[in-house]
Write a structure and sequence with these properties.
By secondary structure, this protein is α+β, with helices and mostly antiparallel strands. Helices cover 37% and strands 24% of the residues. The protein contains eleven helices and 13 strands. The strands form two sheets. Strands 8-11-7-12-9-13-10 form a seven-stranded mixed β-sheet. A six-stranded mixed β-sheet has the order 1-2-3-6-4-5, with helices on one face. α3 links the parallel β4 and β5. The longest helix has 23 residues. The chain is globular and about 55 Å long. It starts with a helix and ends with a strand. The relative contact order is 0.17.
Length: 323
């Protein structure tokens, strides 16, 4: 994790609401009293073989950051690196079609982009969203007493690693594709109806890493109930077969020093909560009074998970406690 704090201190613009000094999902800049720009960018190499599905996943992943801020995506720019001489135009068009279709599903507009020739395909988006400056949700305002709700199951990184190793069953492949291609749009739009304290999406740093960022930014300790964490079918079996990505191992190594009680759970469970995920769900901090109402609303929207996976505590000596 790179520390940009020293650079951020040089920026004195009061309209920059979220910048380099925060480990948040997007940058936020207030244009006027009614509108703030929400900006993010993300791209990566293929996690599945099907180019159209890869395009969908990459777009859903990039759009997710905007939903995590409680905002609406408005415009998108393609980011593409592609070996055109090696793979040809058909695969290229399928990737871009997947991204375009997911952008349309989000109700946003594709307005351009940039491409380069590269030896390995890479695709993603730069996304701009909007929200009222007073309604932007950050990952750094969770309050003691809040409950944490997760809207998608874990195991995505483990199953995609199993796919690369040729271990994944067809039904598990279908389930992980359904998870990765699903927008966080429905969950994100629900947030406006509630007094959400904080929110983030679970991606490359895994549940452990993004929970750590929420706890550190909010100056609280978060208790995780690993027994309640939703997990895709097959995940535990693939962990036993060593289908664990290098990024997941790095997450566990880095964030373990900020956790109390890690020895309460098995090595496999540790890898699952550290799983480096693509296009994961939202992790939402909500007060106790509204928790059940939010869960019911998320269920109505068909979210893949509505589990309460933790609770926010007063600041202790660590950022995360394993229950």
């Amino acid at each position: 994790m790179q520390d940009f704090t020293s650079d951020a201190k040089e920026n004195l613009d009061s309209n920059l609401l979220v910048g380099l000094d925060a480990s948040d999902d997007c940058g936020v800049y207030k244009l006027n009293s009614e509108i703030a720009l929400i900006q993010t960018v993300d791209f990566f190499t293929p996690v599945v073989d099907d180019p159209y599905i890869f395009g969908q996943i990459a777009a859903a992943n990039a759009l997710s950051d905007v939903y995590a801020m409680g905002a609406k995506p408005v415009t998108c720019l393609n980011l593409l690196a592609f070996p055109i001489d090696k793979l040809g135009t058909k695969i290229l068009k399928d990737i871009l079609k997947g991204g375009s279709d997911k952008i349309k599903e989000a109700g946003a507009h594709l307005v351009g982009g940039h491409s380069i020739t590269d030896s390995e395909p890479k695709y993603g988006l730069s996304v701009t969203g909007v929200q009222h400056p007073d309604k932007v949700i950050t990952n750094s305002d969770a309050k003691p007493g809040d409950y944490l709700i997760l809207t998608k199951p874990l195991g995505v990184g483990i199953i995609t690693t199993a796919i690369k190793k040729g271990l994944a069953k067809e039904e598990d492949l279908d389930a992980v594709i359904k998870t990765m291609t699903r927008l966080n749009k429905d969950a994100g739009e629900v947030l406006e109806e509630f007094s959400v304290s904080a929110c983030t999406d679970i991606t490359g740093f895994g549940l452990l890493g993004h929970t750590y960022e929420m706890a550190k930014g909010s100056e609280v300790t978060i208790e995780l109930d690993v027994s309640k964490v939703p997990v895709l079918a097959g995940t535990k079996k693939y962990v036993e077969n060593k289908a664990v990505a290098g990024g997941t191992k790095k997450n566990l190594s880095y964030f373990s020093s900020y956790i109390e009680g890690l020895d309460k759970i098995s090595e496999g469970e540790q890898y699952i909560i550290a799983d480096a995920i693509t296009s994961g769900g939202l992790l939402i901090a909500i007060n106790e009074d509204e928790c059940d109402q939010l869960i019911n609303k998320l269920k109505e929207q068909g979210c893949l998970s509505t589990e309460v996976v933790g609770k926010v505590l007063e600041k202790d000596k660590c950022e995360i406690k394993i229950k």
